[in-house]
Amino acid sequence: VFDMPYKTYENKFMAYKNASRVIKLTKCDAVKLEGGKKIINIIKFLIKNKIPVMGHLGLLPQSETGKFKFKGKKIFERNKILSDAKLLEAAGVFSIVLECIETSLAKLITNTISIPTIGIGASKYCDGQILVTDDMIGLSDIHPKFVKVYANIKKIIEKSVKNYYNDVKSKKFPTSKNIYLLNKK
């Protein structure tokens, strides 16, 4: 599933053109769009035109700036997200990412709709889970509460680059093992 970048689906024709191109170039199976009611006609148009769509509700990181804040504290916000999930399902999306959504709301959505929910900071009650690889392996400098870092590759990379730099500077690299010479017979 290709995550459509911000501002690439501002209207249904732009969305179709860009999604078609992405699918052709990447050979992905589907596209993911952030939003609910506001973009429902775009989603319907894509699906009608044979572009499989995954929805995305809650925190919308492409269009929201600033600090990551979980969604679903206030009743109107909870009702809007639940309503959007139902709209997305009715429009024909095959699943919905729920990002940074309060636990009981994520559970309610998962139990209310019949398509899979994929959580990212939305509790164990979703049908599946996802984490951004860069976050999971310690490459990101952004650390929302819902991210669990499983390895710190950033430190390994930094150490490797420092060692490489030091070896080049001190003429320890390259050595005869790392260069090509003409065989003289």
What does the model show?
The chain has 185 residues and is an alpha/beta fold. The protein is built from six helices and six strands. The protein has a six-stranded parallel beta sheet, with helices on one face. Helix 1 links the parallel strand 1 and strand 2. Helix 1 packs across helix 2 and helix 3 packs parallel to helix 4. The longest helix is centred in the middle third of the chain and has 17 residues. The radius of gyration is 22 Å and the shape is elongated.
Describe this structure in a few short sentences.
With about 180 residues, this protein is α/β, with parallel strands linked by helices.
The sequence of SSEs as H and E is: EHEHEHEHEEHH
User: Mean pLDDT, rounded to whole units?
Assistant: 95
How far is it from the N-terminal to the C-terminal residue, by CA?
A: 57 Å
What structural class do helix, strand and pairing data support?
A: alpha/beta
Unreliable stretches covering 5 or more consecutive residues: none
Tally of alpha and pi helices: 6
Shape: elongated
Mind sketching the topology for me?
Layout: E1 2-3, H1 12-26, E2 31-32, H2 40-48, E3 53-58, H3 75-91, E4 96-99, H4 103-112, E5 117-120, E6 128-129, H5 133-136, H6 153-169
Parallel strand pairs: 1-2, 2-3, 3-4, 4-5, 5-6
Helix pairs in contact: 1-2, 3-4
